[in-house]
Amino acid sequence: MKVLIIEDEKELAKSIVQYLSEENYLCEVASSFKEALHKITMFDYDCILLDITLPDGSGLKILEELARQHKQDGVIIISAKNSVDDKIEGLQLGADDYLTKPFHLSELTARIYSLIRRKRFNNTNTIKQGELEIDLLAKTVAIHGESIALTRKEFDLLIYFIGNRNRVLSKSTLAEHLSGDLADMLDNHDFVYAHVKNLKKKLGDAGGGQYIKTVYGTGYRWEG
What we know:
single chain; alpha/beta; Rossmann fold; Arc Repressor Mutant, subunit A; 2 domains; four-stranded antiparallel sheet; 8 helices; elongated; transcription; DNA-binding response OmpR family regulator; phosphoprotein; transcription cis-regulatory region binding
């Protein structure tokens, strides 16, 4: 899962990145309004952590821009401001949650997970499709009740496919999801093919259905 941290306090942003990375989130950071605006325009995120007080603009304008672009990224405002008016305005502009600084990183992580679960997976901790069962909290996958071992990238890819079921996902979209803005610096996206191939093989070898379909010349689609 991919998270954008819009925060100008460098030490706080660094702490959040370190903590979330250990929880297998792919993190990117924007420390200014201008940088944040560029990132939300160019990329999609499962969750955006948004400080509404930025050195060159208001984070509330980021919410307005997300709405203008019809983006579906989840947003949690993280702010030192604790006024009711700020919370109401942020939520009315499209934020999903509001967390006042200072906060425990464990609570932040729990809120991120809850937001993604609610928006992507109908507020459930367990995803079931036929013989396939995924525990989002434990990050485990089982087929016919038998656990299968997936790498971090393979698990993330599986969740992304299921969260976008029946949609055609291009290789560039998958590359961006797996590698963030580093994808723009890669000569090709062959690593996407390798991850998809390995995931399909592991699911198939364990007796899973052929849910991942190749859409030639375009990308891949999870059917279900």
